[in-house]
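Subject: sequence -> structure tokens, single chain

Hey, anyone have a minute? Need the predicted structure for the following. Not urgent.
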Amino acid sequence: MTSVFSKVLFHFLSKALSPYVSNLDANTLKLSVFSGLVELNNLQLRPDAFKDLNLPVTVLAGSIGKITLRLTWTKLLGTPIVVTVEDVYALLAPSADVKYDKDKEEKLAAQLKQELLRQYAELVEAAAKAGKKKSGAASTADDDSLLSNKTLFRIINNLQLQIARVHVRFEDAGLQTGAVPMAVGIVVRELSVRSADEYWQHIECGNDALKARKMIRLDDLEVYWDTQLPTTAFLGATAQASQLCTFFSAPKPHYRVLQPLSVDGRLTLNKKPGPDEPQHDVMLTVQDFTLRLNREQYLGLLHSVDYVSWLALRASL
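Reply:
Had a minute. Here:
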């Protein structure tokens, strides 16, 4: 039973994570059915993990240290679902700075083709099933849809999320872009999303059938922008994602554009919105924060905007 359940779970995890990680296989999955623990370790980010953002960047090195899922299989809708993500590191570079690798490009193209074929097959199958339904089955379909929405809403109501230690660094040595050599980093120490009751007190499971309330806490968000760096300061294509973790264990001096910032938030999801109750209601409380931008950073920002605009124009031709 454990083996069969593991294969089914791996199928769903693979479908969700495969566009972003490259080494997802059964060996990276640790599953304990009785304790309700699912664990994925040492996932490597794909070079095109950020393609959905339509940015001219590629991932030189990137990893997710651990993804943990804790839940009770027999009481999925009545117990908390805790998702923990730890140690997310990514080193990015302009696409123009990356040397052309024919084998790698052909492999990525083949993977994209297979993904498109899979999605097309799913659409064809779904259309075929929809065509076989009789007009008299409309009420049944509505009931199924309603049940699905109820189930999804209960899962969201019980979901608790924690993301710890995120460091995304973008390096531009200016070899292809002509920009002033720079390194820009976004760092988050911790992000947590927890369920709350109507008085905004933490609870393990949401018990409101119509509203899901989430307390959001963001700790130590900061942005640094280092300019005029020597060649030795760049990690480069041979870097390992683990080198980025030193920001937390042995921090080095950086020129912070945004000083460490903490944010508290309240998110309300309303299942039955009305004129006076929106479907999504967000309230954020931000402490005093400081933004600093020197001349070199300002010029680098202008150059980066021009470069992205040029690439977008070239892609449209």
